[in-house]
């Protein structure tokens, strides 16, 4: 089943066109990676899907419903959650309070407690640090917190914006292992990355974005093997 359908999407900032007639799909149960260099338009696409930026043209459907005009709050409530680039955890709030913020649209206390348990079992390090100010976590731990917070809303589709950015290699591997685990547990993932190698290794399918345009698509393995991708993104 098609979970997310982006059709002919364009995004402008004033006269600058950041996204140019982009179309792609994410099917239920997949990890789909969108890769591209700095400024290719990856974040703009993600922010448009989550309702933080409005498209200048094109449509976005989530679970069969148009969402490109819906407010961000409604989009989250419909089952889609974004982990922004740079994490953005709330400083001054504890790890636990940050996680609770992720469930603010959900009124079911019992379900929230169950989701918290699941997040802590997936990220034991967060449970150990649950009373610590989120701002004092390491970069990798903040990434885990941001992912845990997004999972607290029990999304059907998780949007991840460069989760490996700025992390040490050991954390990068851990984050990608966690993404695979999230998929196994039944959450669909749209992953935006500059780390093409890792992103395509775990992706069912991928798309390559260049200056706002989609130029290539295929399975993760096909893209990893393609000369174009190897030259441009994998250094060989
Ligand atoms: P990166 O990997 O560096 O985050 P990206 O692929 O996510 O890049 P975007 O952040 O979507 O790319 O940016 C695409 C283009 O749109 C860039 O040229 C950027 O300068 C421009 N842009 C992004 N946000 C704005 C904004 N709020 N106002 C004006 N231009 C913007």
UniProtKB/TrEMBL annotation:
Gene3D superfamilies: P-loop containing nucleotide triphosphate hydrolases (3.40.50.300). Pfam families: ABC_tran. SUPFAM superfamilies: P-loop containing nucleoside triphosphate hydrolases. Signal peptide: none annotated. It comes from the Bacteria. SMART domains: AAA (SM00382). PANTHER family: HIGH-AFFINITY BRANCHED-CHAIN AMINO ACID TRANSPORT ATP-BINDING PROTEIN LIVF. This is Branched-chain amino acid transport system ATP-binding protein. The lineage of its organism: Bacteria, Bacillati, Bacillota, Bacilli, Lactobacillales.
